[in-house]
Each structure stands twice: as structure tokens, then as C-alpha cells.
MarR family transcriptional regulator
Amino acid sequence: MSDDPLALERQVCFALSVAARSVVAIYRPLLEPMGLTHPQYLVMLALWGDSPLSVRRLSELLQLDPGTLSPLLKRLEAIGYLRRERDPADERSLAITLTESGQALRAEALKIPPAVVAKLGLPIEDLQRLHTSLTQVIAAAS
Amino acid sequence: MSDDPLALERQVCFALSVAARSVVAIYRPLLEPMGLTHPQYLVMLALWGDSPLSVRRLSELLQLDPGTLSPLLKRLEAIGYLRRERDPADERSLAITLTESGQALRAEALKIPPAVVAKLGLPIEDLQRLHTSLTQVIAAAS
DNA sequence: TACCAATAGTTGGTGTACAAACCATTGGCC
DNA sequence: GGCCAATGGTTTGTACACCAACTATTGGTA
């Protein structure tokens, strides 16, 4: 390996970007039949875990800008997976809830993680270790 | 930790996406004085390592779509860091070369990696280990 | 109670990111 | 030499992603 500190192959951030894009690319064909993109899938995961959620709360959970979530949520509403209603207790806030269809999708989604792990073909322990490292980095970067 | 296979905090891909975005966010204020975004910085790294490069070659090196690179390269040309000229040997191909200004920028860029490592505050060995894991994942996903 | 800073979402602008359609050049091959 | 599939880039359309500016509601406080 090169000793140049600016060598492309030495940059952790480059590896991080490429890895993220590559893994998202594995999800793409798996999510396509469900009509979801990867960020949309993450929103659904959050809502399957806890509902209703506000845009603010989603933004914290997914570490995404509200300005990114706003149109994304409208698209999920348009395809019928969720509802966006004002919270009666605080009219500023949105109460985002799953529709029947959105609830039902969870059964399909259960197939996704094993399919991804199979495609990657890496030992679970490696993935676990990676997850731990990534969590460290996220904590350090925030 | 939850035993739900769809729990957000268990998804490696979620951690990967958030980590990538978080680390890019660390670069942002460092690159801003140079007038570069993170992907543009990666292109510059590639060119500092080897020049001239074609769009095709850059696309392989950075694992980015030519359709993504095309406008990005025009922006880098517009701010004067590189030149896009047809390769006389093959008029289909672009020969992308650095300008004086682009060459000179390398000296500034040398400050970036240590600054990022400092901001992260993680031991180098951890980053090295992470890099190894990521390289594995990239290989597995391709 | 009337103001006003804080909070929740939305919108608009710039820059990726990818897929598909497109255009020009090239290199075989009859 | 002339056709034609392959190759290299560009363009278009959709969807993030972030920032800054904006609107509407809320809650404290003079």
C-alpha cells in the first residue's frame, strides 16, 4: 500500500462511501418489488418499531434532515403506506402512522435482512464487528 | 438490544449509511474553504494520484456512475481545478488533467486527513480495522 | 393579554446518485 | 471501403441530502 496520505485507497471515508453505496445497491432489487427505496425502507423500519412518529422524531432516529424527510414522507403517503395527519395536541407536529397496507408490508420485509446477508456471503460475526465499529464512528462523529 | 430482525439499530446498512453521512459531514467544513464537496475531493485525490484520467477510468476508481461524474467534472472545470479535453488518440474519450490551480490545491489537502482523524478522536488502529472490514464488504458486495 | 422567541414542517436551491435513452467515434468484418 | 456492434460520454428523470429562508403554531413572560 502507498505511503501517500492522500492515496485514495487509504481514505476511510472513501471506503465508507463506497461500502454504503454498494450495500444499498444490494437492497435495491430486493426493495423494488415493494416499491421502496432504501431511505424509504428505513422510514418504514422506524414506523414498524414505533408509531405514530413525528417528522422531528424520525429525523432524530434516522439522522436525516427534516427537509429530506418531508418529500420522502409524501411519496410514502402517495403510494399508500402511511398517513400524515396533524397532531391534535400540537398542530405544528405531524402524526405519521402506518396504513393497513403499510402494516402488511412488514411480513414481506422480514425476508430482506436474510437475503442481504446471503448476498453478501460474509460471516455474521464479521458483520457484527463491523456494526460495532460503525456505531463507534457514528458516536465519534456526532 | 432488541431481538426483532427489523429493529433499526440492528441494521448494518443503516449504520453504514449514517456513518458515511456523519463522516462526510466532518469533511464539509474542512473542504468548504477549498470550494470542494466530498465527491469532488475524491475526484481530486484520484487525479493527484494519476493524471490524465478518462471518465471511464474515474468511474471505475471511484465506483461512481459516468452520469454522476459528467456534471461533477464540469463543475470542477468551471472553478478551474481541471481541464476536460478529448483524447487525440480516441476522440470518444476525455483526457482529464489538473490545472496549475488544481495541482497547487494538493498542498492544502494534505491538512485534511489529520484534521479528520483529530475530529473523530478515534485510535488509528480502530480506523485501520474499520477500513479492513469495509474493504471486505465492498469486495463481497461487488 | 399581547408579544415574542422557540419549535415543527415546508420550500427552494445546489449537488450528488443511478438508470435509461441518446449521440459520436471506433474497430472489426464481410 | 462500408456496415455495425461495441465503447465513451452526455442528457434526462427521479430520488435523496443538506442548507437557508419561510410559515404556522405554541408557550413563556412582561
Remarks:
- Chain B has seven helices and two strands.
